[in-house]
Structure formats: C-alpha cells, structure tokens
Amino acid sequence: MESHLDTASIFTGLSNRIQNDLIEAIHKVMLNEMQKEIDQAKFVSILVDETSDVSASSQLSTVLRYVTEDCVTKERFIGFSDVSADRSANALSEHVFKCIETWECGNKLIAQTYDGAAIMAGQLNGLQAKNKSHDIVYCKQQIDKTRTVLENKLDNFSVFYDRLGEKYGVDAGIGIQRSKNISIDPQRHYRTLYNKIISIIVDQIKARYSSLEEFKFMELLNFNKVDEYCKQFPVDSLDSLITTYGRFFDVIRLQSELNVMYSMKDFKKPSVSHLMSYINSTDLVEAMPELFNLCKLILTIPSTTASVERSFSALSRIKTYQRNATGERRLSGLALMSIEKDLLQELMKREDFYENVIDIFAQKDRRIELIYK
Question: Around Cβ 312, how many Cβ atoms within 10 Å?
Fold first, then answer.
C-alpha cells in the first residue's frame, strides 16, 4: 500500500467514491455469507432497536439471531436504517417486513424483540401489535422468579421498615405532618406507599408478559425436573409447544424422544446448548431430530436485546461530530465490518474472499472498464 501511494500517478484509490465502493463490496460479501448461514438455519428471530445519532437522525438497528449448522448461536448485525422521516408503528413495521422478505426467513421466523423507542414498546398501536403473529419472547424463568420475589415482599414490610429506620433514621414515633392539625403514623404511611409500588410493579409485569404461558414449553428442557418428568410427563408444556410452534414439529416423535432423554443420565446437561452440542457430537441428530430442533428453537429465542445495544456503540464511534455526514450505506458497511469483525477475519482467510470483493467492486459504474468484455 505504501509503495502504491508513493508511485501511483493516475490511480490512487483514495477518492471518496472508491472508498465507498470498496466498503460496499466487502459489505456485500459479508452479507452473502450471512445469507448462507440463515438459509441453513432452522429458526430465525429478529431484534430491533432505535436510537438517535450525533446528527439527531433516528437510526434503526436490526439483528438476526439463529443457530448455525455447527450448533453455535449467532446474533448477526444486519445494518442501520434511517427512520427519521417516519417513526410511526406502520413505518417501522414495514421495515421489519422488508427485512424478513429480503433475508427470506419469513417461514422460519419464531420470535421478535423490540426496545427503545416508545412507539415500538406500545401495547396497542406499537410495532408489537402490528406483528402479533410472532410476539416478543423474554426469559420466562427470570420473569417468573422476579414476580414471585416481589409478591413475597408484600408480606415483608416490617423487615423493610426496620431496615429503612436503621439506614435513614425513620422514627416510628414521629408523625408525618400532613396539615397544621393532622398528622399520620409514618409506618402506616410508608406501608401504603410500599404496597402501592410493589403492586404496580407486579401488575405491570403481569400485563407486559401476559403471553408467557405460551412459552411454557421451555420447561420441557428444564434439567432440574428430569426426575419428576420420568414419573409424569409434562403434558401441559408439550401442549404449549403444540399451540405456539406445533407446525415445526412431529409431536408424537418428539414426545418419544423426550421420554428417552428423561430416562437417560447422559442427556442431563447443564444447559440447552450443551444438550444440543452433545446430540450433534455423538451423531444422534438423525436418531433424535425433533429433540435437536427443540434445542435450536429455544436457543433462537432471544431473552435480551444486548447485541442491538452494542451496535449503538459502533454507531457512536463511526458517526461522530467531525463525521456527521456519513451516508447510510457507508455507515452500515463500516458498522458491519466493526461489529462482525470475527466474521470478516474468518472470510479474509479464505482464498476466494479477495476475488469476490474485486468482482463486486469491478461491477460498479466508472469511467474506466475494469471487466474485460
């Protein structure tokens, strides 16, 4: 590169257009590789979030989650989209539908998560309501645990009040002056506030995650209950799977495979990912295909939008106050190379990577012909 820059007299390749064409070529090669992974994936989920960049433009970040043939769960960043012109639920919904169509994953889409913008989190007019056929999935066990802990706290006000007094000096003997002539018992006052706050949180959890019963099927691979399932098969959990994702499974065969798994200690693993890797490494995929697909289904369902949040860090590094006019295609290309650098480094080890980049680069319209005809 140094020699080229020192000796080149006609073509240096440093123009803005050349840079953008090279970025787009690499971007295209990476997207093609990701498309191959998605085509081979059994299930796909989509994660979307929105933020504002330094130029006050609303950037929508999109990530696809799936399990590869190598039994590795991937969350691939797809790109940024400027949605400043229209941030309505209809417009954002159109973006999601277009993304699903572009990546040809509509028939295998099993979950979607949204975070950030208020329009995206709304219950009635938000994006979730527009795409109701594939609702958001959160980590069911953690939500249930949080709700149970909070409900139990309603009976522990006395302990909470004693700690409050020790830490902040709240004295039960001193009344709270509501007016000149009326004072109220502080313990009674704080108990009312305490119960209201806890009740509101619990009610909000119930309202926001009212559909979690649809995902009771996750209990089918709860390894802490294997001994219990050996005695009595979890029919309710299987019915939940049939209701939500039954179209993807041979249910009768799955039940048979689950019974085998519950009865054999070799299948008792620390996590679902360990079980999936075990089935794959021991060549049991053909013998237990439905159980293998169930593992993939559960691992494809996202519990957080952390990967989307991380893309915002890349956005802040690429689009700065000094570079606030970065175009959308250049922004997505640079962001993809930064966020998916592991994929890029893997592709660079292949012999055909540079040839593919050059082929795409040469197809761009320019004053000199780079392709011999």
Answer: 19
Q: Give how far Cα 112 sits from Cα of 45, 104, 137, 240, Å.
A: 5, 15, 7, 18
Q: Euclidean distance between the first and final Cα of the chain, in Å?
A: 29
CA atoms within 13 A on the CB side of 297: 22
Q: Report whether 61 contacts 311 (CB < 8 A).
A: yes
Q: Which long-range CB contacts under 8 A does 322-326 form with residues at least 24 apart?
A: 324/53, 324/54, 324/55, 325/55
Q: Which two tokens stand for residue 291?
A: 């159980």
Query: What are 94's two structure tokens?
Result: 């159109």
Task: Kindly report, residue by residue over 201-245, the tens digit of the pLDDT.
Answer: 888 877 777 666 777 898 899 888 899 999 999 999 999 899 889
Q: What is the pLDDT of residues 89-119, one digit of tens each?
A: 787 788 888 999 999 998 999 988 876 433 3
The answer to whether the CB of 49 falls within 8 A of the CB of 114 is yes
Kind of pairing, strands 44-52 and 109-115? parallel
Contact (Cβ atoms closer than 8 angstroms) between residue 330 and residue 23: yes
